[in-house]
Queue: 2 jobs
Job 1
Amino acid sequence: MENSLKLISIFFLLFSIITSCNQKSESKKHTLDPSDVEESLLIVNKELVKSEDEQIEDFITRYGWKMEKTGTGLRYLIYEQGLGEKAEIGKIAKIHFTVSLLTGEVCYTSDSDKPKEFLVGEGGVENGLEEGILLLKKGDRAKFIIPSHLAFGLVGDLDKIPAKATLVYDLKLLNLK
């Protein structure tokens, strides 16, 4: 609730800045200083990232996971070590997975779909998933928490993943070709 109030306040501030008029003369046209708008957007973005980071940390604490954090904000926990080769760019990764939201709602699973295959380094999957796979070896089981900016961003996937959603992947790297 507190985070919601902060965000509402920030959006109100941004709206006020954008819609404010030049008070020097009523006859002058309303103008916006692009640097003011840019600064306001940066402030809002930083607050959104901070709020999402706090939600992720609360989630990790609630489950007692000992996760590592990369420089991009990806959290990962390798909870079962495999014995195979390390993933690298140019390999085709095949994973068994479950993707859920921080609420616990399952969005996708390879139980109902099928194992996902993708060429590492070529895109086609969330940036956070690609980054996380490069930390694994064949046979590893891991959990990734992927912040929205490394997942589907502001729009979601237009299907089961909503806008600005943080994703929780539980996966096993089945194979590398």
Job 2
Amino acid sequence: MVKRTLPTNPKTRRLIKLLRKASSSNESAVWRTLSDSLSTPTRQRVSMNVSKIDRLAEEGDVVAIPGKVLGFGNIGKKVDVAALSFSQSAKDKIAQAGGKALTFEALMIANPHGKNVRILR
């Protein structure tokens, strides 16, 4: 049986460790779930369009996506989105709608306990 390894990207590995540390220190299951989702192989990682975020999120939500956000479609709601990475068009569309495109580190600083954070896959 093949031993399962973590991602090889050093930034992603550092982020996974940071999320697990925040999970244990703040007793928040959201950060642990995100770290587990980021530990999946790159081929299975989530990529989501802003149109799907518009369908699934409510106005004013804070959404975490364990993958990349792409700019296909439109978003008409003010939603703060945290993700591993963003395309430039996705950042622009989220900003035009009045939301913010955040990194996971910025989201952990702003909301250390992970209250009202929805994970979309």
